[in-house]
Design brief:
9 strands; alpha+beta; Nuclear Transport Factor 2, Chain: A
């Protein structure tokens, strides 16, 4: 029989799976269900922070406009689960066909997810996506692989 910790970790992984599925389906309603209304997102595009579910969904709308077909994958996700909060980190990659028909394998980014438990549901209250910085050039290192 699984421990309570294993049950909660499985629930969180189901939420991450919903993000992957929602992005692939370009389904904003599905994505809205995995974030808290007051989510704070430190995404790769400006500004420094995006506050609230509307801002987070606007970021996903931008992605869906940029890509004709889009896929998303998470690799090496590690979770730490408490009673009411949890966090995880791993690597994510958007890929697919751009609006102009060009196929792209995308780039790997570092991803951190912070969850808050509401009832029996784990929702993302904060996320952060970043790329390493090449300090001498001041440019993001977008060609790294996990």
């Amino acid at each position: 029989m699984p421990t309570q910790h294993e049950v909660e970790e499985a629930r969180i992984r189901e939420q991450i799976d919903k993000i992957v599925e929602g992005i692939r389906a370009k389904d904003l309603k599905a994505l809205e269900q995995v974030y808290t209304p007051d989510v704070v997102s430190f995404d790769v595009e400006p500004p420094l922070q995006h506050v609230g579910i509307a801002a987070k969904l606007k970021n996903w709308t931008n992605v869906f406009t940029f890509f004709q077909d889009v896929s998303y994958e998470i690799r090496d996700l590690t979770l730490t689960v408490g009673d009411e909060v949890a966090f995880g980190h791993g690597f994510g990659r958007l890929s697919g066909t751009l609006g102009n028909g060009t196929a792209t394998s995308g780039m790997w980014v570092r991803a951190t997810f912070c969850f808050r438990k509401t009832g029996d549901t784990w929702l993302i209250a904060h996320d952060q996506v970043s790329v390493p910085l090449d300090i001498p050039t001041g440019k993001g290192a977008t060609d790294l692989q996990p």
